[in-house]
Design brief:
This protein is mainly beta. Helix content is 10%, strand content 44%. It is built from five helices and 30 strands. The strands form eight sheets. The chain has a four-stranded antiparallel sheet, with no helix packed on it. It is globular. The protein starts with a helix and ends in a 6-residue tail after the last strand. The N terminus is likely disordered.
């Protein structure tokens, strides 16, 4: 009852005489409420802030206060290219620089980009496609092409046609090397195929005599005998973690790369376990294990004058020198060629020109020129927007595949001081993960001088594209 009476009294008071009312002239004006910013507006602000330089220039003109007062560009905050309104708190949604995504080295843009209007003049011969997995590795040998995928398959292609394949029990195929017993990369019945896998194993395959399209597994590196012998010797163990030791002859993490020394009969394997292992092909014995880097090794390349180069996610490129000691071999550290914050993702050596190329996650390609036992820094090639994932050489050319889905074809001039971009090969819908090149059969140059090359580009779009490129000019 008390509450009811009080309510009636209050109602009566509110309906009292006009003397208690506020005159219209004496009313106080409260500040208008601040407009609420919707989530979609914040997203539009973030998109506008990350536009290209051309878009920024255009938005600056549109957002000028005196340009067009009636334009919706000036009245709506979501289309402004300037800083957000005062009532919008800075966050990763409104300040792109605050997002950890833009700090990733894998999406960092190169300081210079290739010209998108450059004429695409290389000839695309065809596309090889298998719906079984992303292509991570390639190896060309004569008229045969081997492809490795994350479906644990090694596909075989002959004359641009599906020629079969073989499958491993486990492990993504990250590297492939084809070699004959004589040390020359040819396609014969004596050829062996070495594959490096995500599970840390190196498997060895051989062409079946009964079925040329079939391959059978004949072993692994290390051999079971060597692994068992090493396991029984406590001195052969190395510490890989705080409470874990493994035999030094075996990789305990993914085998990321393989490189072959034809003359010495040696195979080098680099791994994410930060080591390089040296294998003698004649008896599949591990001769040496080198703790080379402080982070995962992404690439190993056999060089010139007894040098071997390694590139790692620690941002370093190191040079090692081989010293033969009877039937054994030892490698000694020479120098560090490159130290940077961005990961080194690919290495390749042009043995004929004595040039080393290094691709990085910032989209740049550094190169060094050899003069005897000395290496001098040559410069940098800028052609990709995103990380360089693979490199290959073809005569006087070097090819680079990138996460920006393109392949750049570079040629080094006779003096070695300038690299010219002959062509930019596009067409993949995913990052270009691997490259291989082989001489074309018709090397009688119709244009006078130089050679034609067949270039294979493997991508995470599950396809392999086949190109014909000429050393002097990209052939149309």
């Amino acid at each position: 009852m008390l509450f009811h009476k009080t309510k009636q009294k209050m109602t009566k008071t509110g309906a009292g005489s006009s003397s208690s009312r506020i005159a219209p002239d004496e009313r106080t004006t409260d500040p208008p409420p601040r407009p609420r910013v919707k989530f979609a507006q914040l997203l539009r602000l973030s998109d506008v802030a990350t536009q290209s330089d051309t878009d920024e220039d255009r938005d600056d003109v549109n957002s000028t206060p005196g340009s067009n007062p009636s334009s919706p560009t000036n009245s709506s905050p979501r289309l402004s290219s300037s800083t957000p309104p005062p009532f919008v708190a800075m966050s990763p949604w409104t300040d792109p620089a605050a997002s950890p995504y833009v700090k990733s080295p894998w999406i960092k843009l190169s300081p210079a980009r290739y010209d998108q209007t450059q004429q695409q003049s290389a000839l695309l011969l065809g596309t090889l496609l298998r719906e079984e997995g992303h292509v991570y590795s390639l190896a060309a040998s004569g008229d045969m092409l081997y492809t490795g995928s994350d479906a644990r398959n090694i596909g075989i292609w002959k004359d641009l046609k599906d020629f079969g394949g073989f499958k491993s029990n486990s492990g993504l195929v990250k590297a492939i090397v084809v070699v004959s017993s004589s040390g020359n990369v040819v396609n014969t019945a004596t050829s062996k195929i070495f594959t490096g896998h995500q599970d840390g194993k190196i498997r060895v395959w051989k062409v079946s005599l009964d079925d040329p399209a079939g391959h059978k597994r004949i072993g692994a590196l290390p051999t079971f005998k060597d692994f068992l012998k090493s396991s029984m010797n406590p001195k052969s163990y190395i510490r890989v973690r705080r409470h874990r030791k493994v035999p030094r002859v075996k990789h305990f993490d993914a085998v990321s790369c393989l490189s072959l020394n034809h003359e010495a009969g040696l195979l080098y394997s680099g791994s994410w376990d930060k080591t390089i292992k040296v294998w003698r092909l004649s008896d599949s014995k591990c001769l040496e294990s080198i703790h080379a880097h402080d982070d995962a090794i992404n690439s190993v390349a056999v060089g010139f004058d007894g040098l071997v180069f390694s590139g790692s996610a620690d941002g370093k490129v190191k040079a090692w020198r081989r010293d033969l000691q009877g039937r054994s071999t030892r490698h000694f550290y020479v120098r560090t060629l490159l130290t940077q914050q961005n990961a080194v993702t690919a290495l390749v050596v042009n043995a004929g020109s004595a040039v080393l190329y290094s691709g990085s996650s910032d989209g740049l390609i550094n190169f060094w020129e050899g003069d005897g036992s000395l290496l001098s820094y040559g410069g940098v090639l800028r052609g990709h927007k995103l990380a360089v994932l693979c490199l290959a050489t073809a005569g006087t050319m070097v090819l680079s595949g990138s996460a920006d889905k393109s392949v750049c074809v570079w040629k080094r001039d006779a003096g070695g001081e300038v690299h010219q971009c002959l062509a930019v090969l596009t067409g993949h819908t995913g990052p270009v993960k691997c490259l291989a090149a082989d001489r074309a059969d018709d090397n009688e140059d119709e244009q006078g001088g130089g050679n034609s090359w067949i270039v294979y580009s493997g991508s995470l779009d599950k396809s392999v594209k086949v190109w014909r490129v000429h050393e002097n000019i990209a052939r149309a």
